[in-house]
Design brief:
Layout: E1 6-11, H1 16-27, E2 32-39, E3 47-50, E4 53-56, E5 58-59, E6 72-75, H2 79-91, E7 95-98, E8 129-131, H3 135-150, E9 153-162, H4 169-183, H5 215-228, E10 234-241, E11 248-256, H6 262-270, E12 275-277, H7 289-292, E13 298-305, E14 312-319, H8 323-339
Parallel strand pairs: 1-2, 1-6, 2-5, 6-7, 7-8, 9-10, 12-13
Antiparallel strand pairs: 3-4, 9-11, 11-14, 13-14
Helix pairs in contact: 1-8, 3-5, 3-8
Amino acid sequence: MRNQKVNIAVVGATGMVGREMLRVLEDRDFPIDQLFVFASERSEGEIVAFNGKDYRIEALKPEAFEGKSIDFALFATDAAISAEYAPRAAAAGAVVIDNSSHFRMQNDIPLIVPEVNPDEISKAAQHGIIANPNCSTIQMVVCLKALNDSVPIKRVVVSTYQSVSGAGLDAMNELQTQVGELFAGRDVNAKIFPHRIAFNCIPHIDTFLENGMTKEEMKMINETRKILNLPNLLITATAVRVPVFIGHCESLNIEFNSDFSAEEAREVLHNTPGLVVMDDPGSRLYPTAFDSAGQDEILVGRIRKDESVPFGLHLWIAADNIRKGAATNAVQIAELCLEKNFSRVAA
């Protein structure tokens, strides 16, 4: 398949991530022969543009994938929709790349970040489904993998500063509306978030579990262990929603088993595909959420020694959660399939 055009389906093509998938496919000049775009019945007949052509949205139905010879189906849907329709697409011959949380922790479904664990792709032969990790996990594991390959990691503590786009378009609209209402001197109503998000930080993403962690925090912990193949990795997380439209930032504290200087880590990260080091605090050079917006790379800076432990480092990382945190990573997985000549038909 490496040198031929393929048939692609984008499922959830009218949503924020689905539309970004189309933009990324276009930006990266993905070799497409036929494109199919699916969404809910209420979006049926809507037009989306791709590479100068208009495509009509088809309603997602049980028989939607039959007879189309789809090579790759990119799913930008919620877990319930993915659970029902991803196996149907795979049964019709497609390699499914699913952005929902539904398949991520299934033992026989690979969870892939191409820069980190590309060889796991062969495990998709059984079911024809590849899971796309959580947005906040993706940007972290690219850094962790590179560093762990140099000096084994002992413990990770991560705090996230996640933009409202991670909660969808309605969440972005709520932030915009609240800012306007507050400047007009009016009270605001919180509908999407549990508290006012404008000019506020909320340490609550997804639901709370019995152990006091949120689902978002446990996703980061469990997915990181799976992707890095480090089931006993000591890692903990605190996930916070912040009043930013696009871009997730993370404060990453890493303890190693032996000495690892900031200079050595900076060099390792500089040479890691998918990362861009922005680290010159004296010149006010460090990543921000604004810098990451619209970028496919993960930005890394504030690389420094943690003097509270013998072998520790601090990092600050930022990434576009809609692109590398979702759409770009999915397209990169499809590119990886082409590179490795992996297809469901061949499997």
